[in-house]
Design goal:
The complex is a heterodimer of chains A (254) and B (240). By secondary structure, chain A is α/β, with parallel strands linked by helices. Helices cover 38% and strands 25% of the residues of chain A. In chain A, a hairpin with a 2-residue loop joins β4 and β5. In chain A, α4 crosses α5, α4 packs parallel to α6 and α6 runs parallel beside α7. Chain B is an all-alpha fold. The chains are: A alpha/beta (254), B mainly alpha (240).
């Protein structure tokens, strides 16, 4: 276990203070405060509509917040930021529906942003991409088009595409929700491997078994608020609020 | 002279050949400017400006709500009284292109909207800037949806261009009509014109088939599969 001294010196990648966000009249984040520690994996759970996805979309400025503040490595990123893309350079994101670019091959999908945004040479980007494809265990699919791959394979390519930008933080927005059951494991295995290699990660998911295995912290959200924010051990030992217990019972009951 | 010989004579005559050239030119120029107009309209529609939107709506309302023949005659006969004097060819092109633009704008909008919002979000998350997203993600995918129906517009325009005969542009139908009215041999003259029309539409359809194959990524995939086969063959020989 971590000693008190070293945990005090842990670097915060994300710090959110009293974040509020509304879509029209609907307030989806009602004052959320939390932090993401470098090298750690946080899993966010909660019923649909609880604001989990919206919260992580605020981290890479896909959503702008109405009030409060978000710091990335101690630097404020909230508000409408003209240099938003610079923050996004450091944050990778994986989506429920993969969102690979359909007109490009797997390899081209991975090297697009590194070559176009970062100006990396194509040959260098290609080498890197092949390495990443090995890491997500599908190097043989480099010249396939996305629609020739299974959902699980597509999601692993999407992970490789994000990693190609060498992010400091990976956000996973329900990465296995659109997958057939037999493909969920292959994706979660990759995320777990990255997490064990100390990639700072925030995962929104309903896979509690996975959460138990990889999470350092579990955040439970409901109605736009954080109800529970505790270590994985505490959470799964049942030291949680009644609301969280109810939710757990519901999703673990089948 | 029997019907067949006269028809063939017409087909290879200079007047018919020129008429056919004129028809082809009208088609290509009108669709080209139609695309330009359509692109402008599509962009104006995408911009959230109330006044620009009124202009677009009025434009679409007029050009979709009146016959093309009406528009051609209008441009040729009414615009001169406002000091705009256009040749019969230019009048034809202006009317056809403005009419075409209304339909092409719709095709372009459908194409842009066919690229899901998630694609834009994913590209944004990869730190791509707005123009990079357009250039590398949205437009290439939209073109695959836009280009095939534009092939249809070419075929449609080829047939529509015959209407321009009403303002005395020497295109195929006018040539055929003039030839027939001098000797009343309508069958032969119209057969000759019909052969040209069918020839052009056949060629257009053939080209369109190829473009659709491209749009589905077929050529790139075929190329890739060919290369893969070569790789496998090389590996096999190396094993031996």
């Amino acid at each position: 276990m971590m000693s008190t001294d070293s945990s005090r010196s842990e670097k915060k990648i994300i710090e959110a203070f009293d974040v509020r966000k509304s879509f029209g009249n609907l307030e989806v984040l009602k004052g959320v405060s939390m932090e993401v520690t470098e090298g750690k994996t946080m899993v966010i759970v909660g019923p649909s509509g609880s604001g989990k996805s919206t919260l992580i979309r605020c981290f890479n400025l896909l959503e702008t917040i109405n009030s409060g503040e978000i710091l990335f490595e101690g630097r404020p990123i909230s508000g409408t930021d003209k240099d938003a893309w610079k923050t996004r350079l450091e944050i990778g994101m994986v989506f429920q529906n993969f969102e690979l670019f359909g007109h490009l091959t797997v390899l081209e999908n991975i090297i697009l942003a590194p070559t176009v945004v970062k100006g990396i040479e194509k040959a260098e980007a290609t080498d890197k991409a092949m390495e990443l494809l090995k890491k997500v265990r599908i190097p043989e699919k480099a010249s396939s088009f996305p629609d020739e791959l299974s959902g699980g394979q597509q999601q692993r390519v999407a992970i490789a595409r994000s990693l190609a930008m060498e992010p400091k933080l990976m956000l996973y927005d329900e990465p296995t929700s659109a997958l057939d059951p037999e493909m969920i494991k292959e994706v979660l295995d990759v995320i777990q491997q990255l997490s064990q290699e100390s990639m700072t990660s925030v995962v929104v998911t309903h896979e509690m078994g996975f959460a138990r295995k990889v999470a350092d912290r579990i955040v439970f959200m409901d109605h736009g608020q954080i109800v529970e924010n505790s270590t994985s051990e505490k959470f799964f030992d049942g030291e949680v609020s009644d609301r969280a217990k109810m939710f757990l019972e519901q999703i673990l009951s089948h | 002279m029997d019907a067949l010989t006269l028809t063939i004579d017409y087909i290879f005559s200079e007047t018919f050949f020129h008429g056919a050239q004129m028809t082809l030119l009208l088609t290509i120029v009108s669709v080209f400017f139609g695309i330009v107009v359509g692109l402008i309209i599509a962009i104006l529609q995408e911009m959230d400006n109330k006044y620009l939107n009124y202009i677009v709506v009025a434009y679409l309302w007029f050009f979709r709500g009146t016959p093309v023949l009406f528009q051609i005659i209008f441009v040729y006969n009414v615009l001169p009284s406002f000091g705009i004097n256009l040749s019969s060819f230019a009048s034809g092109v202006v009317a056809l292109a403005l009419n075409e633009g209304a339909y092409i704008a719709e095709i372009m909008r459908a194409g842009l909207q066919s690229v899901g919002k998630g694609q834009r979000t994913a590209a944004t998350a990869l730190a791509m800037k707005e123009w990079q997203i357009m250039r590398y993600v949205i437009v290439p995918q939209a073109l695959r949806v836009i280009i095939p129906p534009i092939g249809n517009q070419f075929i449609g325009m080829l047939k529509l261009s015959a209407l321009v005969s009403v303002v005395a542009v020497e295109e195929l139908l006018l040539v055929a009509n003039q030839a027939a009215s001098s000797n009343f041999r309508y069958l032969e003259a119209l057969m000759a014109a019909g052969v040209y029309y069918l020839f052009f539409t056949t060629v257009f359809m053939y080209i369109q088939g190829h473009i659709e194959f491209w749009a589905k990524g077929g050529r790139r995939r075929a190329q890739r599969d060919k290369e893969l086969k070569v790789d496998v063959a090389i590996e096999r020989t190396e094993v031996r």
